[in-house]
Amino acid sequence: MAKIGLVTALYLCLTLLLNPLSYGAVQLRLGEGLNHLTVFHRRYILALTLACALANLMSPLGIIDVIFGSLETLIMTSVSYWLTRHVKRVTYRLGMSTLSCTFFSWIIALELHFISHIPFWPTYATIALGELASLLLGAVVIYALTRRIDLTV
User: Membrane-crossing residues (predicted)?
Assistant: First the structure.
């Protein structure tokens, strides 16, 4: 429980650090870099889904973003966990997690398209780029952590 709480709090702090860039058609959420933790243990799926729901309470879209953003996080972190559960090399796990989480940015782009009536493809591109940037930075940090800390326990 403590690890779940710690990751949830860390995600919230990192997301709120860049609050103006954490919501909308152009998003840069540093907390998304923590999505890589799910390739080490499934408990982080809950932590990150909860963190996303809490962060999205401050979204201009309100409850809609809480529902769809949390659903996206649940899906993408679950897929990352499932895809990498038998992969041994940490770099492969992080790469697969980066690709799968970036891919699922289409859910948020679709949400914004229907709610805010903004074009889907440009929105998907900007959200995916922000996600990719956060995930690449997160991959470097998580990889460095794995050299010192066993994240699987």
Answer: 44-69, 90-109, 121-145
Amino acid at 64: I
pLDDT in tens, 22-59: 998 889 999 999 999 999 999 999 999 999 999 999 99
DSSP string, 9-67: HHHHHHHHHTGGGSSSSS---GGGGGGGGGGT-THHHHHHHHHHHHHHTTSTTTHHHHH
pTM of the complete model = 0.95
Residue type (1 letter), 111: E
Query: Which token pair is 39?
Result: 């390739």
Instruction: For the domain made up of 2-18+29-146, give the CATH fold.
Output: Arp2/3 complex 21 kDa subunit ARPC3 (1.10.1760)
What residue spans define the domains of the chain? 2-18+29-146
